[in-house]
Amino acid sequence: MKRKPMSYISTRGATPAMGFSDAVMTGLAPDSGLLVPSAIPDASGFLPRWRELSYGELAYEVISLYSDLPEVVLRNLIDESYKAFLHPDVVPLRKADGFYLAELFHGPTLAFKDIALQFLGRLFDYILEQRGGELNILAATSGDTGSAAISGVRGRPRISIFVMFPEGRISPLQERQMTTVADDNVHCIAVRGTFDDCQRLMKQLFADKDFNLKYHLGSVNSVNWARVLVQMVYYFYAAFRVMECSGAGEVQFAVPTGNFGDLLAGYYARRMGLPIRHLILATNENNILSRFFSDGVYSRGPVIHTLSPAMDIQIASNFERYLYYRCSENPDEVAGKMAEFSEKGSLRVPLSQGVLDPLIKAGEVSNDQTIATMRDIHEKQGLILDPHTAVGVRAGLNLCASDIPLICLATAHPAKFNEAVRRAIGRDISHPVLEPLRNLPTRRAVIDGETGELKAFIESQLWNEGD
Ligand SMILES: *Cc1c(COP(=O)(O)O)cnc(C)c1O
Predict the structure, then answer these.
(1) Which pairs with CB-CB distance under 8 Å and at least 24 residues apart come from 432-440?
(2) What are phi and psi of 371, to 5 degrees?
């Protein structure tokens, strides 16, 4: 039976519905909302068959429910994307004491962002090949998205990428992972400010219709629907593996959270019928989301720099997609609440029976607790966690239901975050992918958090590239 292709609509309701490829190329909707599928497909009838599939086969099934790509094209994109991974299972599961780890960090830049961005880089290339034209990707990174996005698009002739990161706020290693890439289509920009400043600059440029029309801006941040979509796959894959070996009929996930893209993918997987009892949202001291899920008030505070920098975020872009479902898919209500947030720095969603959402439990983990968790798990189990994963594990163990398995998402390889590793276990660790970076030359520009300067920089670089 042939399905009707999925269409995409904006959370703010003022953008005409569009197909999958347009949604991927658009990134942020022109009305400043986020694109969401017009309906969430029910996959519960497929689960028995899906349990038998390899990671790549499963990715095909999940993604094809939301896209209209021809079968051979989609299968090929998936194969090519996951060939670049260092583990044959793509996302191996590891049993630890009291929880399972789903290792999402076996991609080329050792962070979970690779899972979606290896695919997205190739998908952009395919769509541009079909349609002609070019794409200028504008990205804001708190550390890991930048290098993963660069790895997905470097050397692709129709694509240029401009990555902004907060100067001095990402680890030196993360910076080298980006600034040592020599391809002409890669441009790294250190912004004097916070990650939220980078994200604001990005949104301002997307909202600048003339600039956007002239330069065809695209997004690799998790405002891009394809990111969320591709991340759903590992929720299914990990749940199947853990249900298989534990005999449980239900699972719960702990998710280290920053921009809320990862957790949102789990939310969609649940809505599609995967038996997830709880999604445990773990934040570091930047606790805007953990506070929201306790009291229904979403209110911005100052960004605090922590040992888990990829989560040092106050304004989580994907929050708006969740809000859309909380507002019963009413775009006017979403637009109203987001206007309230941008005016007052806070918005409120009513609790029902004392909880905001029985699916989502939320907890905040401090720097000290992060280090203590890393040290404890290393001493007792010989396992070295990266600080982001440790935040998830701590909140997961604190908040989980005791009668079903807990799956903690391991979002980065610990060798990327040696400052925290050293504090926790007293020594550095290394990874062969990272060693060669130490000796390579670097390239980057530095700007203040101002749009005019950013636009001028982009134009000058495109002019040079065009030589
Ligand atoms: C990006 C990132 C996160 C946060 O994921 P979101 O989708 O932004 O919530 C957590 N851990 C690591 C290592 C990351 O790179």
Answers:
(1) 433/86, 433/108, 433/109, 433/110, 434/110, 434/173, 434/177, 437/173, 437/176, 437/177, 437/180, 438/176, 440/176, 440/180, 440/182
(2) -65, -40
Is 113 labeled as catalytic in the residue annotation?
yes
CA of 266 to the centre of ligand 1 (A): 13
Distance CA 277, CA 398 (A): 16
Q: Are 454 and 205 in contact (CB under 8 A)?
A: yes
Cα torsion angle, 169, 173, 176, 178, sign: negative
Q: Are the C-beta atoms of residues 168 and 195 closer than 8 Å to each other?
A: no
Nearest residue to 301 (alpha-carbon basis) of 309, 312, 259:
312
Other Cβ atoms within 10 Å of 440 Cβ, number: 11
Catalytic entry in 2, 4, 95, 113: 113
Distance 95 CA to ligand 1 centre (A): 22
DSSP H/E element including 276: strand 276-283
Give Cα 369 distance to the centre of its chain: 24
Residue 262 CA to ligand 1 center (angstroms) comes to 7
Q: How confident is the model at residue 466 (pLDDT cuts 50, 70, 90)?
A: low
Evaluate whether 282 touches 395 at the Cβ level (below 8 Å). yes
- Sheet harboring 93-95: ordered strands across? 93-95, 100-103, 406-410, 251-256, 276-283, 360-364
Ligand 1 cavity residues, CB under 6 Å:
111, 113, 144, 222, 256-262, 310-311, 388, 411-412
End-to-end alpha-carbon separation of the chain, Å? Answer: 50
Quick: pLDDT tens for 113-140.
Answer: 999 999 999 999 999 999 999 999 999 9
- The pLDDT tens digits for 23-51 are 999 878 889 899 999 999 999 999 999 99
Q: Which atom of ligand 1 is nearest to the CA of 113?
A: 15
CA 178 – CA 69 distance, rounded (Å): 31
Q: Work out the average pLDDT over 412-439.
A: 94
Q: Best mutation site among 311, 313, 385 for ligand 1, i.e. most ligand atoms within 8 A of its Cβ?
A: 311
Calculate how far, in angstroms, residue 462's C-alpha sits from the geometric centre of ligand 1.
Answer: 30
Distances in Å between the alpha carbon of 370 and those of 32, 149, 300, 374, 420? 35, 27, 23, 6, 9
Please give the pLDDT value at position 452: 94
Tell me the pLDDT tens digit for each residue of 41-80: 999 999 999 999 999 999 999 999 999 999 999 999 999 9
pLDDT band at 445 (very low <50, low <70, confident <90, very high): very high
Per residue in 154-163, pLDDT tens? 999 999 999 9
